[in-house]
Structures are given as structure tokens and as C-alpha cells.
Amino acid sequence: MKLERHVAFTIPSSLDEATARAFVQDVSESLSHATFLTNLKVSEDDVVSAHLPVNAALFGQQRLRFRSQLERTPDGGRLYGEDLDDAPGWARVSGTGVVIPTPTGSRLEYTFDFTIHVALPEGERWGGRALLKMIEVVADNVLRRVTESFPKAVTDAARAYEARLVA
Prior knowledge:
This protein is an alpha+beta fold. It is built from 3 helices and 7 strands; from the N terminus they run βααββββββα.
């Protein structure tokens, strides 16, 4: 099973361009309020890894690992999701964070693509196919909630970052 979601959002900020870019490039900071992620780590060579929760009924609550390479760009950063071979599944997270200067600070523009891969047995009979469809619907709902929560989590992290700098 493969499920995909795209999310794009903009955060107005009072931060100047350089400070906003530092926030975007600091993945630990910018995802600090993403409580739906577990085991968030950023290595010295800018490999970002974490787990996304997915409820796949038959398999119960699963934490699907993702790993992405962070590339720092002149206007922010880009995540390149990597393919994994974890069982029973894995996630791929790719995206960009761009800082655009404004007269009152900056604007942070984010786009992310989430893909989850879960290995499911083939449903050969009607009941098996119905169960697989139910698993797909439940997993898609969880992925939808994650992508809907993502903008608020990053916005909350940005507001907390701004508050610390002003204090």
C-alpha cells in the first residue's frame, strides 16, 4: 500500500531574512512542536530521521521511519526523502522551506510531500479485500491528520523561536 499527501503553507514572520533562514535550516528547531513525530534526530551530516505514526488496523499502531537528507540553500533548505526497506513499512518525507524577505520581516513558505509504504498481504477473497481497504482508509486518515497538523506545529515552533529572540 502506498499513500501520498502534499501540504503547502506560509508563515508570516517578524524575523529578518538571515534569522528566518537559520530557523528554516535548523530542522530540530523548526520541527520542535511536531509532537506527532517520534525519535527526531538530525545527524552531523544533515540526515534527518524520525518516525511517523500510522494505525494499520491489522498490524496495530506502527511508527514508520523516514530518513531525509537536508540541503541548505541560499533561501532556506530542501529535504530529499530517501527510500528505505523497513518492514512492515516506511515513510518518505521531502520538501522545501523558503525564506522571502518582506518589509516587516520575512515570509516562510513550506511545501512537503509525505508518502507512506506499508507491506500488506494480498486480499484474495472478498473479506480479505474489505479488510485491506479498511486498513488503507484508517492509514490514510492518520496521514491526513499528520499533514493537517504539520502547518500548526511549524508555526508554533516559529512563534516560540521569535519569542526567545525578542526576550
